Amino acid sequence: MLALTRKTDYALIALSYLVEQQTQGDNPVSAKRIAETFGLPLPLLMNILKELVQAKILASTRGPRGGYSLATEPAQLSLLEVITALEGPIRLTQCADRLPVLGQGCELSANCPIRGTVRSLHQRINQFLADMTLQDLYEDKMEPAGVTGSSDKVAGRGCACRNKIESPYTEPRQTA
Amino acid sequence: MLALTRKTDYALIALSYLVEQQTQGDNPVSAKRIAETFGLPLPLLMNILKELVQAKILASTRGPRGGYSLATEPAQLSLLEVITALEGPIRLTQCADRLPVLGQGCELSANCPIRGTVRSLHQRINQFLADMTLQDLYEDKMEPAGVTGSSDKVAGRGCACRNKIESPYTEPRQTA
DNA sequence: TGATTCAGCACCAATCCGATACTAATATTC
DNA sequence: GAATATTAGTATCGGATTGGTGCTGAATCA
To answer: Are the C-beta atoms of residues A8 and B121 closer than 8 Å to each other?
Structure first.
């Protein structure tokens, strides 16, 4: 569907928040706090953070006052790394990232009528994601992008963040 | 997963083939012939072609010697239209195409830490897809793109096209 | 009339995603 | 050392989406 999963959504939100907190010398940050701040489901968020630790994007500390902290400089961590860690390598189409070797999975190979285009699109998206760092993500938050939205087509689904930002430790999930 | 569906894959292959056949004055082309040429599952392909007709991207003629033909100039048909027709509007993330109106689905709205970045990425992809036309897709086939593949990460799945291109009307699907 | 081809449904199986639960391990605090 | 806070690991589950099939009807041509 050409869409990121909600896992990636949550991860980017959490990472952006970690940059902020870390900038303020607040370190590490527990999963619980992140979940409460943005109204994310805690168990799911924990799964995601675990994966980010395994990918060495985050470092974790156990025990009271433990939590997660960034394992990399925000300016060194690309969105591509985050997405790849959570969703696996991007492949627009099944053969997007194949080398054009005959017999290697795609028998059409060089004759495939859409190979070039798909590969081109694939590379552009990859490039953009590789260039965009967590630092950019954080700064983007600081100065919200202008509304260039030519969005006449709107898909109706909720946003990833379900809560208002006020202060941490406010009650999430009101009486459903 | 940031991937196109196989439906779109098949559609692009079929459309590209239609341009080719139409260029050679061969018109219309039956679903059966397309399916056999590329080894695609006929019933599925027919579903896809039906959807493209409903989206007014293709025109259909019934009866013997009937089939599908392009309803638009290849240079006027963008990939975005094709993808949108088959998969619905692209939304990288749930709030990607929302206008930043408070209370409208996402309560974080202007405070959402990743809104700007996601929106930016979303627009770039949209723009690329809107600029790329079926004509480009077809020409791309003519001069296969060079291997710029920095693909150290390869996802192992089959290619959309399961058959060799030789001539139409060769037997598809050998003894499985 | 009969063959060919598309149209419109309805359906099914497999996969993936979002989400939860439970137990174990580790660190801090007292 | 006991209690507590927090992450690690793993297993599971329901539901949506995707890939794919089947059946019936309608149009067109010979």
So the answer is: no
